[in-house]
Design a protein that fits this description.
Blueprint lengths: L10 E11 L3 E9 L10 E7 L2 E9 L4 E8 L11 E4 L1 E5 L5 H13 L5 E9 L8 E8 L8 E2 L8 E7 H10 L5 H25 L1
Parallel strand pairs: 4-9
Antiparallel strand pairs: 1-2, 2-3, 4-5, 4-7, 5-6, 5-11, 8-9, 10-11
Helix pairs in contact: 2-3
Keywords: Hydrolase, Magnesium, Metal-binding
EC number: 3.6.1.13
Family: Belongs to the Nudix hydrolase family. NudF subfamily.
């Protein structure tokens, strides 16, 4: 007999209070949950970092087999990275009244100056579910990499973004070497390495 699969109905939220509210929020939750052995757990208290949800976009040129990466400073990387200027995919937060697809298109334009000829949802995933509720919605965008030039970002958001156009193989080599080590970019480039042949083939069929 297959084991019972638990759902959100098997968690009882007993209380919630806000510990901090700024650009992000920190909430304290009290809850209990069903146990694999049967019955219910004791009351559990956890602090959860509530930063909202986000999109991440992989700009890929299937005609040239190239990716467009952005470089910007990430202060939280200062402690553990050789340099806090990281190579990343495009990403941005989703406001409560926004649709992920539209945010993906907007962030691509703001951070790279590029418009996608097509943009496709790939998957979604939790960034760090042990302490954060954030879910990333991952897209790949078909772009013309020859148009990726200049500096980008919104001044009011203190963004200072430089573009890098790399061959897919060079970008993936940076993942293997550890030069690219932020989770969303690693996951996106690994996905591309597994799927680039089908993307190139589909692009060639559309051009015929």
């Amino acid at each position: 007999m297959a084991a019972e699969k638990f759902t959100k109905d098997d968690v009882q939220v007993l209380g919630q209070r806000t510990l901090y509210r700024g650009f992000f929020r920190m909430e304290e939750y009290r809850f209990r949950h069903r146990l694999f052995a049967g019955g219910w757990s004791d009351e559990v208290t956890r602090e959860v970092f509530e930063r909202g949800h986000a999109v991440v976009v992989l700009p890929y040129d299937p005609r040239e087999d190239k990716v467009v990466l952005i470089e910007q400073v990430r202060f939280p990387a200062l402690e553990t990275s050789e340099s806090p200027w990281l190579l990343e995919l495009v990403a941005g937060m989703i406001a409560p009244d926004e649709v992920a697809d539209e945010v993906a298109k907007r962030e691509l334009l703001e951070e790279t100056g590029l418009n996608a000829s097509a943009i496709s949802a790939v998957s979604s995933y939790l960034s760090s579910p042990g302490g954060c509720s954030e879910r990333f919605f991952f897209y790949w965008a078909a772009v013309d990499s020859s148009k990726a030039k200049g500096l980008h970002g919104l001044a009011e958001e203190h963004e200072d973004i430089k573009l890098h156009v790399l061959s897919r193989s060079d970008a993936y080599a940076k993942v293997l070497s550890g030069e690219i080590d932020n989770a969303s970019t690693v996951l996106g480039l690994q996905w591309l390495q597994l799927n680039y042949q089908s993307l190139i083939q589909a692009n060639e069929q559309e051009r015929q």
